[in-house]
Amino acid sequence: MDCPELISEIKNRFPGFCAISSQQDYPDQVCIKVSSQIFKDTCFTLHQILFSPVMMLFAAEEGNGPNQFVINCVFVSLKRSQWIIISTDIAQENAYFDSLAKTIYSASLFEREIWEMFGIQARGNPDLRRLHLHDEVWPQGNYPLRKDFQKMQVGNLGEYKFSRVEGKGVFEVPVGPVHAGIIGPGHFRFSVAGEPIINLETRLGFTHRGVEKLFEGKVYSQAVGLSECVAGDSAFAHSLAFAQAAEKISGLTIPAQASYLRAIFLELERMYNHINDIGGIAVDVGFSFPAAFASIIKEAILQLNESLSASRYLKKVNLVGGVSVDIDGANKQMLLGSLKSIKKDFNELVRILYDSVSFMDRVDTTGVLRRKTAQDLGVVGLVGRACGIPTDLRKYFPGVYKEAKFMMMTQESGDVLARLKVRIMEFEESYRLIEEFSTRLIAGGNIRINLEQKGGSALGYVEGWRGPILYWLKADSAGVIQRVKIVDPSFHNWQGLTFAVLGNIIPDFPVCNKSFDLSYSGNDL
Fold first, then answer.
1. Total-model pTM
2. Cβ burial 23-60 (10 Å sphere, 16+ → b, else e)
3. pLDDT at 425 over 70
4. Which of 106, 145, 221, 482 could pair covalently with 53 via S-S, beta carbons 3.0-4.6 A apart?
C-alpha cells in the first residue's frame, strides 16, 4: 500500500482527514504528517484499517526552535509489509496532544512515558502515573529527554498511587521489588479474595538507566555496542535492529552472505532462550530433572555460540554494514554436528515433559490470556502467537526467511501449555532454518560493506525471541545520533501477564511469569 492508496483508504473512513505531507521514505516505511487537531482521529482510523496495535508512540525534538516537539505514532501493515508513521507537531507553549488511549488501549503506556520524559501531556488519559522515573526520587518538573535537560533540578517529590481493590475479604499481597533469585527487580501487588487472584498491579522501572539518552551524540560504530547492552539475553537481536535502522539511513544493502549469517545467529539466540524458558517452566512447578537437562542443552548452545563468534551471547558480531565473523567450512560442519546432538537431547527433554501427567496438569489451563484481551492490550510476539494472534515479522517482512519457507507457529488456548508448545515448535523450526541458511553460505563470501555516513531517520525491526524489537533512529549528516526510540516486546507484554494470572492462585504466579519471561531491563530503558 503506497502513499496515495493509503491516504485514499483513510479518507474513505475519515472524511475530515487532510495530510500536511506524506512520503514513502523506504519501501517498507510510509510517513504521514497531520495537524494536531486530527492526529487522534487519524490514528484511530489507521488502527481500524490495519488491525494494528500502537507499535510505537514517542516524542522527538525538532531543531526549528527551542522545545519544538513532534509526536510519532507507528502502526504496522502486515498485509503490505509496511510500517506507517503518523506524526504531528507540538509547540512548547501548547505541550499536549489528545490521548489515544481511550480508543486504542495499546497507546496507554507510551503516553505515560511521553509525559514523564518530555512533559507533553496526553490530554484525556485518566492514568498518567510515572513508569520509569519514580516519584519518590525524581522531582517533578524534570524531563530528561528534552535537549535542554542538563541535570536533575530540585523540586517536589511525590508518591506512587497503586490501584486499590476494596471489599469484604479482599487483601493485598506485595511481592518485590527484590526477589529471592537473580531476576531483575519488579514490584507485584496482588489483590486476592480467598485464594484466587482478582487483581495484579505491576510497578517496574527499578532498572531504568536512561538508555535512549545515552545514544544521543554517539556515532553508529559506538552505538552498536550500546544496543547490545539494552537487554542482555537479546544482545544480537537488539544490535541487529539498530544496525538495520542505520543501514536504511545510509542507503546500505548488506551482502547476501551477511544476511544468512545474521539469520543463523538470530536463530541461535532464539534457541538458547527458548530452552532456558522451557527449563524455567519445569523448575517453577517443581520438576527439577528436566530443568537440569534443559540447562545442559542451553550450555551446549552457548558454547557453540562462543566457538562460532568468540562470544557466548553473540556480542560484537553485528556491524553497521554486515557482520564481523564468517562461518567457514570447518565451522559449518561443527555447527551442524553440534546442532544434531542438541536436537537429539531436545527431543528427549520434550518426551520427558509430555509424558509427565503431573507436569501437564500444572501447565494446562493455567495462566490463560484470551485472544481478545491480548489484542486490546497490544500483546506481541510469542505470547500473542500462543493466544492465536498470527504475527511474526519473519513471516511478513521475510527477507532470507522467504527462501527458507519459514513456518509461523501458533496456538489458540493462551495458557502456560500453549506458550510452552510455541517455544518447542519454534526451537525445532530454528534448527531447520539454521540448516537451510547454512547451505546458502559461500566460502569466502563478502560479509560487510563500508559505511558511508548519511543523515535522516528510519525504523529498524527484528523478530527477537520474545517478539518484535523496534529501533527508530534519527541522525545528522555526520552520522551523529540525535534521537533513538527503542521498544522491546516486554513493554507491550507486561500488562498481558497481569490479566493472565486472574483467577489463578498466587503459587501459580511463578510459572505464569516464566511462561511470559519478560525483560526488566528491556522494559525499563
1. 0.96
2. ebebebbbbbbbeeebbbbbbbbbbebbebbbbbbbbb
3. yes
4. 106
